[in-house]
Each structure stands twice: as C-alpha cells, then as structure tokens.
Design goal:
Number of strands: 5
Structural class: alpha+beta
Order of helices and strands: HEHEEHEEH
Strand content: 15-25%
Length: 149
Amino acid sequence: MVKAFSATSMLRETRMLPENFSRDQFIADMRAKHSRILPPEVEFSVGEGWLPIIADSLRDIEVSLETHGCLPRASVRQIKEKFGGLRIYVRPQNEAAHFPSALAAEILAIRDRAESLSMRTCELCGDPGELITSGYMQTLCRNHAGDRA
C-alpha cells in the first residue's frame, strides 16, 4: 500500500535536476573532485535525485578529514539506500584505527544531515518527496510514488 501524501506536500513545477542532467558525468565529476576520499570501486547505489546531496556531503566530509589531519588515512567505503534513506559510510583506511572523537562527531553529523535530506527528497528525480512503504521503503515524489502504485 502506498502512503498518501500529506496536505503539506507540494509538487514542484520544476525538477531539482536539470532536464539535460547526466548521471554519468555528474558522478565522474564527483570522482575527480573527491578522488582523495572516493576510491574508484565505490558504487553510487542510489537514484540520481540524491546525487546533489552526496556531492555536498563529500565536500563536507573531505573538509572535515583535512581539518583533522586524517585525509590521507580515510575514505568513503559505501554509498547506498537503506530503509528509504541515503547512507554514506566513511572509515579509516586501517580497519583497526578509529577517528578522533571530534572528527567522528562531525562525520556523523554530515551523515545524519544527508540521511535527513534524503528522506524528504525523491531518490529518482530530486523533487520533494516522502517515505513510502509497499513492501519496500523508498523516498519518492508524488509523480514517482504514483508510478510505483
């Protein structure tokens, strides 16, 4: 059963992503810009609507790692959807190592912000969305939720 959209939900007239948006080019640009923390084997296992959230998060993660002197010793390990929200996992290169507590708190805040934004953003197009459940949890806009019904 698809969750009904609340009265406060607004269908935007324009998409967050431009019509000529290229997922492959956007990801290639992120990989080039954040190559110090984003290994080539990391998959972007999400819809294109969340890519701008990921780009902002990678920027903030990289700044935090650099500020704390941990940039060469950490990397993004996974980017995926889980329970309808975005998850970005950052770990030290050495699995036995730990981040300093201030850095760990910053990384957690960035991850939480990305997850919170994703829970209000259609994973497929980037328009405002809501979490729906129909055997599978996914955050979708009114148009994509209707397609899924």
